[in-house]
């Protein structure tokens, strides 16, 4: 019977994915240790996995990932809440299931486990790519499109530049300070509160344009991101490192240090 393998590193993930045949259904369960529904989902998936024999070639592969420890992978699959299930075959996402509904999870897995790559492709037969003679693109249209895209990018970067300077300390996080949507965001909020830091925040889950654009703008692929005086500090690990090297790192931005009354 199949069992669930815990993936604990990027290298382990890449090695596992590269070892799978293209026909294998990869079942990826994202979880977090602090989220109670994840424990329930782990039991559900363990039971489901036991119903699928280990075959040659491998028909299904079951893995679990701590969504916060391996946030790069979480970002790759747009994981914004846990538990979160992703079904992948040959590098393509077939379906995602958010939440702890055992029925939805079972139905999704059973549906895609029954399919083979060939049967999935059969539905696409007869849809041929257009010939070059009939698929011409006007050069002027292409140039206009490129100009529009560049203009849109410039406008976004200006908006992002204004956002990161909206307050001396700006936190781009998943969720809000009162309701963080990931443990990393929750921990940074706690650090800022412990140091009585007056800060602004932006919920990147509410604006996908900002969420995707800030990754390129900052050259930093994950969230949360903390910015101070318009300059990127980094994520949780970097913030902790800064605090370790300089316990007064946040002192210039502390409400108490400036004689203000904490909100």
Keyword list:
single chain; 263 residues; alpha/beta; Glutaredoxin; five-stranded mixed β-sheet; 41% helix; 20% strand; iron; 2 iron, 2 sulfur cluster binding; metal ion binding; Thioredoxin-like_sf
> What is the H/E order?
EHEHEHEEHHHEEEHEHEEH
Could you name the CATH topology of the largest domain?
Glutaredoxin
**C-alpha geometry:** globular
Strand order of the largest sheet: 1-3-2-4-5
Under the CATH scheme, which architecture of the largest domain would be assigned? Answer: 3-Layer(aba) Sandwich
Integer average pLDDT:
84
- Rg of Cα set: 23 Å
Q: CATH superfamily membership of the largest domain, which one?
A: Glutaredoxin
Number of domains: 2
Name the poorly predicted regions: 119-137
| Beta-strand segment tally | 11
Helix/strand-derived category reads alpha/beta
| Overall CATH class of the largest domain | Alpha Beta
Q: What fraction of residues sit in β-strands? A: 15-25%
**Main sheet: strands, sense, barrel:** 5 strands, mixed
Helical content (DSSP H or I, runs of 4+): 40-55%
**Tally the helices: what do you get?**
9
Function: Monothiol glutaredoxin involved in the biogenesis of iron-sulfur clusters. Binds one iron-sulfur cluster per dimer. The iron-sulfur cluster is bound between subunits, and is complexed by a bound glutathione and a cysteine residue from each subunit.
Protein name: Thioredoxin-like protein
Organism: Rhypophila decipiens
Family: Belongs to the glutaredoxin family. Monothiol subfamily.
